Amino acid sequence: MTFVRKLAWGLATVTALTLPALAQTTVVAPFGTTTGTYMDYMKTVYDRGTGAELLQVPIATFDKEFELTPMAAESWSQSEDGLTWTFKLREGLVWSDGEPLTAEDYVFALQRAATSGYDFAWYWDFAGGIKGWKEVTEGTADVSTLGLEAVDDLTIEVTTTAPKPYFPSVTSLWYPVPKHKVDELGDDWALNVESIVSSGPFEIESWEKSNNAVVYTKSDTYTGPWQPTIDRLELDPTLAAPEVGLPAFLAGDADYSFLNTGQVPVATQRYPDGIRKNAVFATSYISFDLEAEPFDDVNVRRAFYYAIDREELTSTVLKDIAIPAGSILPPGYPGYNEEVVAQAVFDPERAKQFLADAGYANGEGFPDIEIWIRDEGGYNGAIIPAMAQYLQAEFREILGINMNIRALPGADWMDGLRNKRNNIFISPYEYDYLDPSNFYGIFYNGGRHGYFIPEYDALVAQADSESDWDTRVDLYAQAEQIMIDQGLIVPLVHPITIAVVSDQLGGEGSQPNALGFTPLDRLAHYFFTHMTKQ
Amino acid sequence: MLPYVLRRLLSVAVTFFVVSLIIFLMMHSIPGGPFDANDMPVSAAVREKLMAQLGLDQPLHVQYLRYMWGVLHFDFGVPYQSPGETVIQLLSRAWVPSLVLGGLGVVIGAPLGILLGMAAALNRNTWIDYFASTVSTIGLTIPVFVTSMLLILVFAVWLNWLPASGWPQPERWILPIAAYAAIPMATYARYTRSAMLDTLSRPFVTVLRAKGLSENRIVFQHVLRNSAIPLVTVFLPMFIGTATGSIFVEAMFRVPGLGAYFVSSIEKRDYPLEMALMLMITFMYCIAYLLSDIVYALINPRIRMGGSE
Asked: Which domains does chain B possess?
């Protein structure tokens, strides 16, 4: 009897001790890219350690309905003249080592970004318009002249060169840098798990540098909004390729996986309730060298605009992975304008007429061209090569033009675009922050493609600083009309990503938003803090 | 033999330097540099500063000499992709999974292939022979990423016997090792079969049979030994090729190995790592061929090292 009782007690104790361990929820997610240098978003965006942004708390961020939500900030206000923004931080935010998180950490993050070769530095000029940014990055002014000030521990003041009504949404990419750690170790604080400190909802447990996979745990010290509802998070970039991710998902090694076109029917059949679609806020478009033959002729560019059957393209070769694009702005994005979109029709006769007007009736005398595409993975890798072949056939058939396709590694493609080594490109672009100025800024005053169109620039500049939303949207629509009339770009498609999620995964983050889309890790802060696992 | 080895070592050194020069020039002739890949470039002033920090503002010959001087002191620099460690540290970390999986793949695949090849040769034109050639033809012609996919599909997804991918638990090693083993097995089966058939038709085998030696002794002690030269020739290079990691196998099975660095170092213009990887491979192949030559002589004393007659 005693033995049985002892055994029962023993078992009960063991069970009680192991229960918390069993209740630990771990989510394994495909996320990130397989190489990363610093675990510091404000040091490098393109080469960052996986999920570096989840370790820190941004000033504000977006929820799944794309509503801007204050995170580190409690509130913000704009000055009378519209040039100065004041952000009030929450009290009680700390670094994971116990040091207080202050306004100074945010200001320092941008001061360092402006001076030390931050690969995303252009954003703070292009999107942020911070006073003095350009001069400081070009080395002609001192960092102290930047329009940034930590007024006290909880107050940040930002001065912009022109009124930026959308500045708070720009701060969704403004993360703090632990100044106390940089003072001690330099930028190397972000190289080792032992010295990395965090301010956000997660802290780091391990980091496999060979493939940039990380393990995060729920932070013990984070007091801000959006507390994680899971205990551990494994972010594995090697799962990001659907060819690897889906088998791992099927074998129970991953909680969700992205799908390639071939996988969609299989996964839909097996997991009818687990399929999630997301319209990525991104656009693939054709861009030209406006000064080089034959694209220096607006009629040639407009011929291309009308020669593409976007409906056929997205219902055949790009079935399930893209939708037609009639504007640089994707559907659901603020400022999206149906009237602009409606103009992008497939009109072979008009296309032929434009080409004839340019002196190349039926393509006769038109030089052979070569379209340059960027060799990459992800949703672009699934879309662009197939699309390029479709365009090749379409241009041949409708315009009588010979177009070759050349895929180049990222660096070479970018070099070609920037230095105008070719005259026609397929260019993909994904949003950085949620405002039309983001997409129109791509073509503003040189921008990404070296376009200088004075009337376009004037409209965009006016729209950017306009505080009335309806007037702004109207100005952007006028700017886009100039793009259409001058054939500056040919919008092609917007990508759709499809994922399958396990039925064990729950929470608001895994459920579709009002538009029927589930942005998943596109909104990493929201997604990973609003998921549960059974 | 010693003078021969010394002469070969000298030629290894010369090869090494010629290769290093070619790689270095090719590497720098690719347009763009480590700071040009991003959508929006850093400003010219900042770029200049960064290039100077890495010594990339120096003339090419200075950069080359500096690097090679470091190499002589076993210093391969700091990889741009992983600034927290040296190239040597990176290699010794990332090489482990590749060496374990690729190495075991060859070590398991090669003997299996030899057995298969022997079985085929000794049972020529029977079903065993046909089976062996079918297996080796499949092994040689199907690309490794297809083999990997099939292995995952069958053993992880359908049968659910093994995890689909991952590292480091040993049960996760099985499928990638099987994928790696396919090629050495197929190669060895073919080489062994033809070498054995060739040897079996030699007059000395008939003499041995006439002497009344048992068939087992003839096969294992005489025929196999005399057929071993081609097998030795293939082994080390194959081992090096496999044990440095295949980008395909490592990507499919999510192995944090060396394979991907061969590609990423070029894409990211990671000059120190790219040089180190190429020099390492060059060096290993040189040594592998040298060792193979020495082993030839040990197996078959009739092979003389040039110049020692």
From this structure: 88-303 (1.10.3720.10)
Tell me the pLDDT tens digit for each residue of B82-119: 998 999 999 999 999 999 999 999 999 999 999 999 99
Q: Return the residue in A207, A210, A415 with the most chain B beta carbons within 10 A, the one to mutate for interface testing.
A: A210
User: CB-based contact (8 Å) between B79 and chain A?
Assistant: no
Domains of chain A: 56-190 (3.90.76.10), 282-496 (3.10.105.10)
* Interface test with chain B among A238, A253, A422, A430, by most B beta carbons within 10 Å: A238
Q: Cβ contacts (< 8 Å) between B274 and chain A: which residues?
A: none
Question: Are A501 and A245 spatial neighbours (Cβ–Cβ below 8 Å)?
Answer: no
* Interchain proximity A138–B45, CB inside 8 Å: yes
Highest mean pLDDT pick, A83-97, B22-36, B74-88: A83-97
Put simply, the answer to whether A121 touches B166 (Cβ < 8 Å) is no
Number of H helices, E strands in chain B: 14, 0
Cβ pair A147, A158 in contact under 8 A:
yes
pLDDT tens for B185-209 read 999 999 999 999 999 999 999 999 8
- pLDDT per residue as tens digits for the range A261-274: 889 999 999 999 99
pLDDT reading at A1 higher than 50: no
> Whole-angstrom Cα distance, residue A459 to residue A173?
26
What is the reported pLDDT for B228?
85
Which residue intervals of A87-236 are DSSP H helices? 103-115, 122-126, 133-137, 167-170, 179-185
User: Which residue matches tokens 């060819």?
Assistant: A243
Asked if the C-beta of B89 comes within 8 angstroms of chain A's C-beta atoms, the answer is no
Take residue A34 and report the two structure tokens written for it: 């397989």
Distance from CA of A396 to the nearest CA of B (A): 31
Cβ <8 Å between A243 and B83: no
A241 at interface of B, judged by CB pairs closer than 8 A:
yes
B151: closest chain A residue by CA: A247
Q: What 3-state class would DSSP assign to A252?
A: coil
Q: What are phi and psi of A91, to 5 degrees?
A: -80, 150
Structure confidence at residue B298 (pLDDT): 80
Q: Is the pLDDT of residue B241 over 70?
A: yes
Residues of A in contact with B47 (CB under 8 A): 117
Residues of B in Cβ contact (< 8 Å) with A126? 40
Residue A397 DSSP label: I
Six-digit token pair at B11?
Answer: 């030629």
**A415 interface with B at CB cutoff 8 Å:** yes
User: A88: how many CB neighbours lie within 10 A of its CB?
Assistant: 18
- What pLDDT sits at residue B308? 45
Contacts of A143-151 spanning 24+ positions with Cβ under 8 A: A143/A111, A143/A114, A143/A115, A146/A110, A146/A111, A146/A114, A148/A107, A148/A110, A148/A111, A149/A107, A150/A102, A150/A103, A150/A104, A150/A106, A150/A107, A151/A86, A151/A103
CA angle B162, B165, B166 (to 5 degrees): 115
- DSSP-assigned beta bridge partners for residue A27: A233
**ipTM of the assembly?**
0.86
Contact B236, B288 (CB under 8 A): yes
More confident residue, A311 or A379: A311
Min Cα distance A154 → chain B (Å) is 31
